[in-house]
Structures are given as structure tokens and as C-alpha cells.
Amino acid sequence: MGEFDGIKEREEGKNKMPLGMAVLFMVLILFGLIYLYRYMPQTTGWTQAGQYERKMELHKKAVITHEVKEVASGASEGGKADKGPDIYKSDCAMCHGENLEGGIGPALTGPKFIYGSTLADHVRVVTDGTQNGMPGFGKQLGAEKVRAVAHYVFFRHTK
Ligand code: HEC
Hints:
By secondary structure, the protein is an all-alpha fold. The protein folds into two domains: about 35 residues; about 110 residues, Orthogonal Bundle (Cytochrome Bc1 Complex, Chain D, domain 2), CATH 1.10.760. Helix content is about 55%, strand content about 5%. The protein has a two-stranded antiparallel sheet. Strand 1 and strand 2 form a beta hairpin. Helix 3 crosses helix 6 and helix 5 runs antiparallel to helix 6. The chain is rod-shaped, with a radius of gyration of 31 Å. The N and C termini lie far apart (about 85 Å). About 15% of the residues are buried. The protein binds heme C.
């Protein structure tokens, strides 16, 4: 061994792998396997989209908690939210029901909303309307009243 046609095997080639290197090598393989297992949708169901969804869910909860506090303390709109019920009765009740139970339009009692359940979502929908039958009230009511009635809707399904 060691020589063929004058070509010599280098002695260093026979050296054993240093122990530290061998350990590192095994640990990396193990890490790789565990990593593959944990983050493959086929095994644990982990997906990037899922992670995004969870983060958005948490964020929404935080926004809602913040808004509920704001509305409850009256910090955001002063007394204007009080006009909400009146505006609702005159402009919204014929489609969404006296008690937000729904009618021509969907129920506004939650917890599921097509266009989102935050105060900002309601303001947006009420201001601009939607393609499927919700009229926009931005022009008719103006920003202040839209916020008041959005507050009312928001308050009804969060309190
Ligand atoms: C002419 C009937 C009508 C009137 C009046 C009306 N809505 Fe609607 N509203 C609808 C319909 C229909 C939808 C569903 C729209 C869709 O699916 O795109 C809707 C949707 C909504 C949504 C979104 C619900 C969701 O699930 O995301 C909110 C919030 C809402 N309306 C609030 C109001 C408020 C507040 C008023 C009064 C200022 C009002 N609406 C007046 C018909 C009406």
C-alpha cells in the first residue's frame, strides 16, 4: 500500500479526523435533520404563510385592545361617539337591522367580518362602501359622523 506507479499516498492522508471536527460534523448533520423536520410543511405543518398569519392575528388583537381602551376612555373622539346610535338608526338600521342583527346587509355583531373587525376597517368600509351593496357614506356624513357610527358598530361587537 502507499505506492502505485510511483505515486505515493501522502502520510497526512491517513490522519484521523480530529475529534472536535468529527463532533462538529455529527452535530451539524443532526441539526440539519432536526431543522428539516421542524420546518417542513409535510411534517409539522409549519409554513411561512402560517407564521405570517399568526403574527397578523396577534397584531390585530393588539390593535383591537388598543381601540377598545381608547373608545372606553373617550380619549379618541370625545363625546362624539354618542351620536353613533342616532346615525345608525337613521342611516344603517334599514339594511343592518335595529339591533345590528342583519337584513339586506350582513349582521354587524361579529365575531367574523368580511372586511375586518377593527375600528379602522369599519371606518374604511363605511366611508368608501363596497362592490357588493354597501353604500359609501363618506360624502353624505362626513368624516366625523362616519367615525361616530363606526365607533358605535365597533363598540357593539367588542364590549
Ligand atoms: C343599502 C343597504 C345598506 C345600508 C344603508 C348600509 N349598509 Fe352596511 N352593508 C350593506 C351590505 C349589502 C354589506 C355587505 C357588503 C359586501 O359584502 O361587500 C354591508 C357591509 C357593511 C360592513 C362590513 C361588514 C363586514 O362583514 O365586513 C359594515 C361595517 C357596515 N356595512 C356598516 C354600515 C354602517 C355603519 C351603515 C350606516 C352608516 C351601513 N352599513 C349602511 C348594506 C348597507
